[in-house]
Amino acid sequence: MKSIQQYILFLFCSLSLSLQAQNKYKNWSDIIRKSDPAWFGTEEAKKAADNVLLYQRDIGGWPKNIQMQQELTEKQQKDLLALKKTAVETTTDNGATTQEMLFMSKMYAQTKDERYKESFLKGLNYLLEAQYANGGWPQFYPLKKGYYTHITYNDDSMVNILNVIRNVADQTDYYSIKPDNVTVEKCKKSFEKGIDCILKTQYKQNGILTAWCAQHDEVTLLPANARAFELISLSGYESVKITLLLMSIEKPSPEIVTAVKSAVAWFEKTKITNLEEKRVLNDAGKIIDKKMILVENASPIWARFMDLETNEPFFCDRDGIRKKSLDQIGSERRNGYSWYSDAAKEVLKKFPDWAIKNGTRVGAAEKKNVSLITVAQDGSGDFTKIQDAIYACPAFPYETVTIFVKNGTYNEKVRLPEWNTNVVLKGESKENTIITFDDNFSKIGLGRNSTFYTYTLSIEGDDCVVSNLTIKNASGDRGQAIALSVTGNRVKISNCKLLGNQDTLYVSGKETKQYFKDCYIEGTTDFIFGSATALFENCIIHSIKSSYITAASTPEGTAFGFVFKDCKITANTEAKDVYLGRPWRIYAKTVFLNCELGKQIKPEGWENWSKTEAEKKSFYAEYNNTGEGAAFSKRVKWSYQLSKKEAASFTASNILKDKTANWFLR
């Protein structure tokens, strides 16, 4: 019996390895980058590797745009053998050479065939030999007459090379082949020269650094033409990978920091937010026409070609005559070229964290295009008060504005108004970045609605994120006193501590959706209340004394109210009788799913707040809760236990559904 089981296991493992080793990709680049590592040890891969070795010239480089996995005839093999000594068409354009080197590295990792190692090292030597003394690389080497001698950033050629050189210089594990120390030192110097070239070619517009062109003259380093429809211009595409490369450098020099900040400012300045590309396809899925459509608040895009002095986009046909709009050029170039790109969104997304890491701050000259503001009590940031940073935020920005708050206790009342949308308020650490104030109902003294003015922090803007903060109402147990008030829509609160007593957290607003993740929320009475649809996920909800956790005022007809998923419901030892909730308004909805309920939760679970009508119109429910407080059989009769099918609908996508899809994943 044992031998049969072993045989079955052997067959299963063999089948599994066979499935992993199958290549499902047709494009040469995809085969290299996406195939499972095991595939590179197969006979299919070895046949492809034989072709790659044939295509490699003796000088070390490869030609471009070839599907090298395709079977070769005898004549093609002979022709390639004859070409090996000629160095014809060896290039780094369109990923050539760098991608074949990656292929050889993956082959060597699986087979340890020395031919693959030798091929990789020849390719590396080719890259080192091709570099100009000023640090740049031509498109073809040996040099080919024409624009091919220019330093080329086109299609990320030079960035691809520098990424190879850096991995060797830093002796990372990205490549399986480890060159000798002499080569490693050469790569270190080569990378430094390459970065120096990048810094020297960054274009100055009226004395201000901007971005890069697709080609720069190899002698003067000035912008240069390429093909007839690729005139001198600033590039909204090639500049992206250059900037990301600079941002990836550990401990960047002041020159690199300046280059990155300048490029980001230029991307902010040149983004287009009123156009969308519409593609017309035929039955085979091929593009037969492109049109640019005017829309409001479109996702930002950037033109591939922009005027050196005005940043105005332009377009060219093969006649080399500049046009102002895409529809002014012929269909062949209009449809066969990428004239716009959204690639720069990655730069703008990564910049705030990069800037925080590298200690940059918003200078006076940059205030018009703010993307990062730093608050620090010691004066090392842009402001010492959080509210002052909010005052500096643009109204209704197209891109995210990050306010980074360094560790410290900020004794201030903070309001993020409804016109400050798309703001990230991010603390340095949840434990040590504290916003605190001590307003309460009596102290405010504005009549029966005084509660709503007691907040320590109020988030009123839509599409905002608050993270890594402690938000505290320090007035003590003196009646209603809000720590955090959230009335904006699509607001995410993550990894925060919300500290207070009665009415700690107010979540409200007409048809608003709010998401609380990995938070600690404590209070006494009704310490989570309001009308919003709010999902609390993986949170700790802590009662300080016996009372009520929630007081929802869900509007009639709303699909979801308060939903607690995978939360822990805890309490101080003196809190022995805690209700899950009571209805502030009669259509209240509150559900606890997959939560751990402590023994402080009363068996009846819910209370009607002396509103018998609420017993018919409210919706209080639970599903799959655990712990001593999960006494399902003893709950009030007007509450519900969800079925598995009913509980399945309580997903984040359903609960927080809004016109901005999956906004809560930010």
Automatic annotation (TrEMBL):
Keywords: Aspartyl esterase, Hydrolase, Lyase, Signal. Its EC number is 3.1.1.11. Gene3D superfamilies: 1.50.10.20, Single-stranded right-handed beta-helix, Pectin lyase-like. The active site is at D526. PROSITE patterns: PECTINESTERASE_1, PECTINESTERASE_2. This is Pectinesterase. Belongs to the pectinesterase family. It comes from Flavobacterium artemisiae. GO terms for molecular function: pectate lyase activity. Residues 373-657 form the Pectinesterase catalytic domain. Pathway: Glycan metabolism; pectin degradation; 2-dehydro-3-deoxy-D-gluconate from pectin: step 1/5. Pfam families: Pec_lyase, Pectinesterase. InterPro entries: Pectate_lyase, Pectin_lyas_fold, Pectin_lyase_fold/virulence, Pectinesterase_Asp_AS, Pectinesterase_cat, Pectinesterase_Tyr_AS. It comes from the Bacteria. Residues 1-21 form the signal peptide. It catalyses: [(1->4)-alpha-D-galacturonosyl methyl ester](n) + n H2O = [(1->4)-alpha-D-galacturonosyl](n) + n methanol + n H(+).
